[in-house]
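Throughout our pipeline, every protein is held as a single compact record rather than as scattered files. The record that follows is passed on verbatim for readers who wish to inspect the format:
___
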Amino acid sequence: MRAYRSVQKAKQRGISFIGLLFVAIVLACIGVVAAQVIPTLIELQAIDKAANKAKDGATVPEVRAIFDRAQAIDDFKLSGKEIEVQKVGDKVVVSYAYDREIHLFGPAFLLMKYKGQSR
């Protein structure tokens, strides 16, 4: 009996089922939001690529037409009418700015504001 008392119980380590469930729910929510955000980032890359192609145009209508052709190919929502075309020195600079909303739950939305310009 005395030997039994001298042996100390090893402390258990790990995560409880409730803790595991909580972590899984948080990771699932993050995954769902990430799955909705990633397409908007891909769209941003396509718009940036189109803006860089469009800067090769000589006139404003030509720049918008090049941008619209790239939009038809890559299928993003920004049109040539929504871009801003400026001439800085001897270079044409195409600027854009737009918003994307992602519905999370109930009245909650995630608003992402994107803006950029040709390089």
In short: Residues 17-54 form the longest helix (38 residues). The chain has one domain: 18-117. The beta strands are 84-88, 91-105, 108-117. DSSP finds three helices and three strands in the chain.
